[in-house]
Amino acid sequence: MPGFEFFGEEERKEVNDVLNTGILMRYGFDAQRQGIWKAKELEQGLREKLNVQYAQLTSSGTSALSTIMAAMGIGAGDEVIMPTFTFVASFECVLFAGAMPVLVDIDDTLTLDPAAVEAAITPRTKAVMPVHMCGAMADLDALKAICDKHNLILLEDACQSFGGTYKGKALGTIGDAGAFSFDFVKTVTCAEGGGIVTNNKDLYEKCDAYSDHGHDHLGVDRGADLHPYIGYNFRISELHAAVGLAQLRKLDRFLEIQRRTKKIFKDALAAIPEVSFRRIPDEAGDSATFLGFFLPDETTTRAAAANMKAAGIVPFHYFDNNWHYIRNWEHFRNHRTLSRLAPQLEEAMAIYKDKQFPASDALISRCICTPINMSWSDEEVNARAAKLVKAVNDALGK
Ligand SMILES: *Cc1c(COP(=O)(O)O)cnc(C)c1O
């Protein structure tokens, strides 16, 4: 799963190109950089690979999402509909924008339930943010239809699903904009980094400026740039972009390995009638970073997770972890921020203190996702598949 498994000569070469000029910043210093523009090259690579008109790199997936929200004008008084199952960064960005995260249930895709989204729309709803969790996509046709009908922005948090597609189109490029993470444990890594993709020129120009202190990047040098609005520093460095450039060239190989390994695991587990799998709206577009499956009940699932762990197979039982599912997000539930939220937002956030999500609980409590690593040998993959089957069978008392 993580691109760092295949860190090697190619990454070193790209980084050395930058070290040889000493120009570690992505903007300016045109004469000294001797034609080395790794961030620009990576943005070009993203546009080509994902077949999208505009790409903007940032310092992280978190800053990519925050930049998009600012560029879309999401702010005070707005609501953003997002899933109960995601990474904490998704709601962090909504709060950072000063908007209200409206969490709604997931379905057996482990992503937004379209019916729950529609039921949560209010006059304040500005955007719907599906999160393509664990390598695979949300039901984008249904979500897009809802957004079109209600005139809402569709923002794809594709941070965990770089390289995945939906009906032939790259995840992230189907909504109004998409965000990727290139942090250290993602499919393609820059060590730290993020990416924004969109086909909307105005949105792209705003993202470009916002992520660099509002610079319009139209001056003859940085000192001559104008600042149409206030921005921040969410820039990626040339060193990080250089790593990503080498990694992007390996993406097809990463996907091929993951898909092959995942199929072996899935075929092995499919022999157990009590096991059902996460529904994937377009199986062919799964980036296959994880295999997600359901067991009949919470007790069996906990037992299977414990057996897997004992056998050296990583079991993410998100019901019990505190990083990806609302159940254990104490800091979110009590909106524990270091500085005060706007009074209106603080009041709205009070609903999370004890809001329950029984439909999400019923799925996440029975779900295990196991990561697919790329460096396993064929022998190891087969041995792991056998251990996985045994761990689940033992939990089922078979
Ligand atoms: C990793 C991740 C992010 C944030 O990315 P960073 O680069 O770590 O800031 C956002 N959303 C999801 C779903 C993620 O998995």
Automatic annotation (TrEMBL):
- Report the active site residues: K186 (proton acceptor)
GO MF term list: pyridoxal phosphate binding; transaminase activity
- Check the record and name the InterPro entries matching this protein: DegT/StrS_aminotransferase (IPR000653), PyrdxlP-dep_Trfase (IPR015424), PyrdxlP-dep_Trfase_major (IPR015421), PyrdxlP-dep_Trfase_small (IPR015422)
Instruction: Give the protein name, as stated in the record.
Output: 8-amino-3,8-dideoxy-alpha-D-manno-octulosonate transaminase
* N6-(pyridoxal phosphate)lysine: residues bearing it: K186
Quote any Pfam family the record assigns: DegT_DnrJ_EryC1
What GO biological process, any one, is recorded here?
polysaccharide biosynthetic process
In which family does this protein belong, per the annotation?
Belongs to the DegT/DnrJ/EryC1 family.
Assigned keywords, A-Z: Pyridoxal phosphate
| UniProt entry tagged with the keyword Secreted | no
Against CDD domains, the record matches this protein to:
AHBA_syn
